[in-house]
Protein 1
Amino acid sequence: MRVPINITVNGEEYHLEVKPNRVLLDVLREDLGLTGTKKGCGLGKCGACTILMDGRPVHSCLLLAAQADRRQITTIEGIAAEEPHPLQAAFVAKGAVQCGFCTPGMINAAKALLDANPNPDEAEIKLAIAGNLCRCTGYNQIVSAIQSCTPSKSDLQAAERGESNE
Amino acid sequence: MSELDIVGKSYPQIDGMQKAMGKTKFVTDLVLPGMLYGRTLRSPYPHAKIKNIDASRAKALAGVKAVVTYADTPGIKFGPRSEDWTIFAGEKARFHGDEVAAVAAIDEDTAEEALELIEVEYEELPFVTDPLEAMQPGAPLVHDDKPGNIAAEFKIEAGDVDLAFKDSHIIYEDRYYLNQVYQAYMEPMGTLAEIDKSGRLTLWTGTQVPNMMRMTYAKALGLSPDNIRVIVPDYGGGFGGKMENNIHLVASILAQKAQAPVKLVNTRYDDFIAGNPRVPMYIDIKLGATKEGLLTGKDVQVVGAAGARLVYAMVIVATACYRVDSLYRFQHVRSKGYTVYTNTVPTACFRGFGNSQMTFVLESALDMIADQLNLDPAELRIKNGIGPNETSIHGWKINSSGLKDCVTQATEKADWQEKRQKKEPLKGIGLSCCNHVSGNRPFAREFDGGAGIVRIGRDGRVTVYHGESDMGQGQKTTFAQIAAERLGVPLEMIHVADVDTDISPFGLGSFASRGTLMGGNGVLAAAKDAFSQLAEVAAEMLEANPADIECRKGKFYAQGTPEKYLPFNEVAAQATFSRHGAPVVGTGFYEPPTVLPDPETKYGNISPAYPFACQIAEVEVDADTGQVTVTNFVGAHDVGRAINPMATEGQIRGGVTQGLGWTLMENMAYENGKIINADFVDYIVPSALDVPDIKPILVEPIEPNGPYGAKGIGEPALNPTMSAITNAIYDATGIRIKELPVSPEKILAELKKKGGM
């Protein structure tokens, strides 16, 4: 049995027929070739598969593709315009990226936070990414990268020039 | 050394933006035309005879292309250290998770469904999971030919320990237990395997040891090593865990049988139960000191669990036995190590490699001694710490040592004196030191250096080839900085190739904190060779002497006349044309001045350089819940020279966080021989909420054997963390933690014993 769905991914509309038990993560990665979204656990506990659905962060490994019918999906491939998104630039410049496997999910979680609350404090940032595990960086630089994209602590221009404030 | 343009500066990872945009193809992202998906059937019992396997129903399922078991393998015994592996369990399964069969199918769902159709008839056998129990007479034997389940023994003795204890003012003695923890790299282990018409195997896999793996797998598959090609794409973390593992061979057998490429990726559950987690250890320590706090003698016994087959546990136990002996000025030491088979997941390398376990024990013991002698723990370390240009008791030549500077700078930054004196209830501050290596001479007997290739094409594009492994730590960027510095070109002109054993140098890989020093020196030597080839061409073009040619910021010029210059790419083009199309290829290697330890005494010099560190943790203990919170953390590290300070600090923060996880939350829990928390729901690793602001301090004494003075940092970043935290807990509560992790239950029980603080 297949379920017809219409989803918009990164601004492009797709009409797909999916198995009812197929999760959105597999559809993104295998059917649409959007491998920027990662599978780290399959249980919604590591956050590597975090995407934005109608602007809100969702674990795509737990979401049935059928539940995404008529929704707007944004993956890491879709958050940059012509230039990298400021969060992407800040993550790179601050050393918030090591192996990079958690990065797409982490950036999506951060983007959802900043879209809803453009000026979060440190505690709010930590809470927003608490469901996204990173085993390389120790989180300090991730928090600092997100902070640098808030108006109060914006040193984004420095970040874009590749300077470190260390 | 002249002024440096690129080394010593904080550059973002050269492939960082690729990763941040989701464009990097990790191992699990790779797809080949006609590719099948593999899944592994694993033993549900810790120890069981396999009486029969009926795969007929699985084979009949539509979409299944191959089902394989031990019968489909060459049946050769093999292993990286001891030949006690087979590709699948043969007569019996030895741990819960042992490979029993595997399926390749057109998609993962079909493969999963097929697994359920394989009928295996088991006969359960008595099992043993604890190494001390496994050594007892009458314990079930994991391997019938290994009496007492002893996989390996290690012994080292120097000086007269018994006499030293007689002369000691105080002696501290206790038993510690270091539990089994999981690397928890974010990308599970996986591989893509393809076999060509001639039978040659290509593996795309995230591995820290591409070349060594190839040698081991060649034996397992009955192939010659040159019939295996290993390509290392970007992969999501390793921390020691991604070395040899049966998963790669299972994929290879599936690809052989199905005659199609097969991608096999562990589910997270499979990765927990059949990865290669840390070696759990019982450690008995006896440590003596004079009234003044000078260490007299040390006697230790280590019993480590290898799990059901030997990966690297024996070398890890040996490391636990004696690496710390070169941290302080020991004169009399004795260690005995037992590596013991158990019916548990095979254990192996995890950041620290045995030294982390023993560092925890030694540094805990030192604080107990400091306490009894009423000495400042920092002072005790400085008093005994090994200094530059000293030779340790086992012959290790310490060229540079920033140990004392690490203690001084860390204590200053953390306001150590003030906080130690100002006692606040349930708040504490603790300190720990460590040493480590930058390469480990006895790990591979043949050699222990590094090599590089630097290729410069017609357009001036520089490609660096190395044989180590970037698991995410930023090694590519470090190597690019070294090559750019030596060639005199901007960093963006350097590209670093993925390791491909058909092309790259035969490197030993990324372990033993060796990448920067060994691989970096190899790249440096290759860059030097390429430079001198280009200098010849530039000299001719500039009508100058080749010895006078310099290059900076991509411009060749003769010494003294920088205004008369040639752009790098013009010289590269001329070099290529004058050689009728041949690129400039510089090669080079680094031979470290190490000494293979004597087989009996272990006297030698295992590394060309030794990094040191001092970390300080501050904690708060909640008397109602038993919860320990790390509120502040300082890590001062002697790194020789930081090639890239931001990346180096990233290693420190990451290592500390992993150590914090081990200390306060992580534990692979067994029940009836099975790991019962094999997922991120029940096995908790630190999240952003658990980590304080970690303040790294880079101490840079400039190591004569390091590339531009650099030493390793990967493992020393974690080694002292556990004891820094537990020493802080002791300072806060008087509770001496002798077993990890520190659960709130333990703290509550101990607080109760102390009369409800």
Note: The radius of gyration of chain A is 16 Å.
Protein 2
Amino acid sequence: MGSPTREKVEKDLYGIIAKLAGTTPDKLKPEDRLKDDLGFDSLKSLEAMSRITEMYDIEPDMDDLNDIHSISDIVEYLMKQLG
Amino acid sequence: MTQLVSEAMKQHLSLISLLKQHDIYTYFLPVSSACENHIRVNGKDCINFISNNYLGFSTHPKVKEAVAGALEKYGLGIGGSPIACGSTDLHYELNERIARTYGMEDSVLFASGYQALLGSIQATVKKGDVVLLDGLVHRSIVDGVALSEADKRMWLHNDMEDLEQLLERVKKKYDRMLIVVDSVYSMDGDIAHLPEIRRLADSHGALVLVDEAHSLGVIGGRGYGILDHFNMPGGADVVSGTFSKFAGAVGGFAAASKDFIAFLRHNCSPFIFSASLSPLIVAGVLKSFDLLDQEPQWRENLIKNSRSFIDGLKSLGFDTGTSVTACVPIILRDTQKTMAFNKIILENGIFATPVVHPAVPHTESRIRLGVMATHTAADIDRSMEVFKKAGKELGII
């Protein structure tokens, strides 16, 4: 089985973020920042990353996570890890 | 050269300065009276909705008398930690009283509620374990997980389906799983679904710790908190909490099995490396437990006042969320409106707490109010007049 497509990763991620944010995927924008736009605290941000990386069986490097702020940052991170 | 106050700190301080410039900074105000239904703030008499002294016990004459007696006998403090300097007979009596309240074998006292949560979690889990947190638990719980070095995961607030899915996903990865909830949530005033949480914990092999901060003295047939409320003796493996709400004092506790408490007493840094709780506090808290049993009118008043307060706010058109207890939010969903609302009500003699970003998302901005058993009908009526005025002025209702 090959790596998941960007479209599939985005769909999964938007579903997870929307659930945690109490909204629907269509209301989210790639530039939305977890903390400043969606009001995620550090616990919720960590949970978002844990859920998506769990889905693709990735072990996230905590140092990498410091540079992740927006939804598009997470997509890029995941694509790099899955590449 | 490294500066003590970094650029990031300066940025944070500039936000505080901005609030002060606009005269909407209402934190750390000087109080010059006792914590009663009316309170003197900044030299002005206000109706007190900022306190968690729900039952008003901190100024009860019998509590003051008990504290005066303890002062005469023991003086101000023990002079060190319980492990080194011992505990008074009052401390042991309170240990026994708390254990009995929760149907547990033993309990331990902490210098604060914050330390009680840190210590309870640190003693329960370690690296290689995981703590599963409701998304709205108190900060002391999150910090307790950090101290324990266990991993932390969260599930959506009071969402049992999300908790079950999380348990399924993580249970194979960890040695021990600990579910932690607030019995009553401090910002929303709703109650944890303990029966379902216990069921899920048992079916997945997890432990349960409840934080009784806002529930002891408030919910349950006898006012003994969430286990009493759901009639679930043994519903939690560890019960932790504070005396800052139920008794309007300070200090905290953990109650559990005899062996767990014995382990905690020798392996819990927030307990071992803090001075023993003052005998004055212990005497006052013991008397507060007596009052809970002997003077049920305070709890009855609290229930009556909370219902009347929530109903009043709803009838004015305010959003009070899911609150069913004495913690009542007016959810305004806008940071500027929340700060402006708070300014208006404070000018009109209502002392409350604005809760805004980053404490909550902008869309969850709110005024947080604590109802007291000692509020009079006139206090509630007057507060409704002021809330109505502020709501109308800002176009909220």
Note: The interface with chain A takes residues 133, 135, 142, 152-154, 156, 162, 169, 357-358, 360-364 of chain B (CB under 8 Å).
